[in-house]
Amino acid sequence: MWRTLSVALLAAGVAAAQDRQSADVIVQAVKVQTTKKNGDPWDVLGGAPDLKVTVRNKARGGATHSTKVKADTFEASFGERTVRVSVGDEIEVTVHDEDERLHDKVGEKTVKVTADTLKKKELKLDFDRVISLTLEFEP
Ligand SMILES: [Ca+2]
Ligand SMILES: [Ca+2]
To answer: Quick one: which ligand is closest to 98's CA?
Structure first.
C-alpha cells in the first residue's frame, strides 16, 4: 500500500516537472525569397528587405519580443533571445520587411511548443515567403 502510494507520488512529481519545462526562444537565422508573392521586389527600386523577426507567446499574456532590424538582406543571423515559453504554449512568429510606414509581412506562423521541441532544441520552419527560420530553445 505505501509502496503504491509512493510510486503514485513519484509519478505525479515527474508529471509536474514536465509541466514546468520551459525555455527561452532564440531567433538564430532567417532566409527569405528575393521577391514578394506577386514578383515585386520587397522595396521600391529593387531593394532587398530589412528583416525583423517577432516572437509572441500567445499564452502568458502575449509576451512579445522583436529582434533588431537587419537592413538590405535576404538572409540574416540574429542570435537574439526573445520570449520564454513552456510546453503547451503557442508562439506566433512573424517576419517583416521593415519600411518607413507600412511594413511588408514576409510570413507568419503559429507553432505549438511540445516537449519534443524543447528536447530537440532547434526548430527550422518554412512558411509563406520565408525559406527558412531557425529558432533555438534554451532551457
Ligand atoms: Ca518593403
Ligand atoms: Ca524595407
So the answer is: 2
